[in-house]
Structure formats: C-alpha cells, structure tokens
Amino acid sequence: MLALSRRKGEALVINNNIEITVLEVKGEQIKLGISAPREVPVYRKEVYIQIQESNKEAMTEPTPELLKKIFE
Amino acid sequence: MVINTRIFGEVTIDDDKMLRFPGGIVGFPELVDFALIHDADQGEQGGIRWLQSVQEPNFAMPVIDPLVVKNDYNPVVDDNLLKAIDSVDNVLVLVTITVPSDLTKMSVNLKAPFVINVDGKKACQVILEEEYPVKYYIYDILKNNKAEKAGE
Fold this sequence. Notes:
The structure holds 2 protein chains of 2 kinds.
Chain A: E1 11-14, E2 18-26, E3 29-35, H1 45-59, H2 64-71
Antiparallel strand pairs in A: 1-2, 2-3
Chain B: E1 2-5, E2 9-12, E3 18-20, E4 33-38, E5 49-53, E6 60-64, H1 79-82, E7 91-98, E8 107-108, E9 114-117, E10 122-125, E11 136-137, H2 139-151
Antiparallel strand pairs in B: 1-2, 3-4, 4-5, 5-6, 6-7, 7-8, 7-9, 8-11, 9-10
C-alpha cells in the first residue's frame, strides 16, 4: 500500500479525475472531502462490506418455489 | 435475448426487461447487465421478482417492492447517487430478500435498495445515509399480511 503524509488542506489526486482533500483533523478522526466523477461511487468500507455480504446471502439458494410459497 | 440462468435454465428475455447497472451492484462492479424476471402466474404486481445477471448464470437475487413489508418506506436518496441512472421521473424501488435455512430469520435489505429508471432501463444500488437496517426481518410481517388478506 502506498502511504503518503498530508496536512490539513492538502490533497491527493488519483487518476487525473479524483481528488481527496483533508478537510479537518480532530484527534483520531479526520474528515475527507472527495471530488470524483459521478460514475465513481464512494462508500464507507464497513458499510460496503455489509452490503456486499447481504448481496451474497441473497443469492444463496431460496428456490423460486419456496419463495413463491412464502409470499403467496 | 436468450440468457443462461442457474435457477430458470435458458430464458428468453424481452429487450424491455433488460436493465443496465452502469456501476454494477455493490461488491460486484463487473456485473452490469441484468434481467428482471417475474413469475408468469403472479404477474408484475406485488410478488417476487428476480434480478438475474446476464453475464453470470449463478447470480440471481430475489427482490420485492419494499412497501409490501414496510409501508412507510420512503428513504431520502442523495441526487448524486442517482446520476448514474439519468432520470428519476419514473422509478421503481426494489430490495433484496435473504432467506436463510431458518425461515423465521428471513429479511430484506432496506439499507441498500435498487433504484431503477423504468423508462431508461438503467439502475443502481444505493447505500442510504439514513439509518435503515441491512437485515429487516419480515417473517412475522408476511404472516400478518397473509392473515389480513385471509380475513378480507
């Protein structure tokens, strides 16, 4: 992993079209500003993983017959 | 178009039932083309539909109208999250159903609904900022729905 040090107000540019700025540093918490093209989604990772797991779970099994019965 | 599916075998899908997810769905950015399949007996209203990947036969998720299980579901979605689908004039919102072996633990994901631009055939899965549960348990709700229906 590439590690770069930044101060408040400084930024990173990724791939010519994504800019991440350090807006605020308060103890253990930092606030980041992200400018990215509209097709680039940005998620908090812990939430992203939760949703990914949920998507995977939704895919495992229930047969159409079973679901139909449940929702009849 | 004929697509291959694990659950339904080979299925012919009308072009107007195809959906494009420009950004993929959460965790699966490479899957962008889907078909929305519904049970011919039940029609399009109320019942379960399947979001079937065109590219990946194994990938199919059961989805329903969230209002069936939560009639006040009305999340606020940031416009920026919806730019990928071009227009929100005529949208359909669906949520995934997860059915574990213990049926009483079945749930829908209210935190990350699918938002579909019906006219433009474009869709995305958004993650809401609002506090909605990833697992909203629906077993009892469905039971009550059924009981109410039976009592009508």
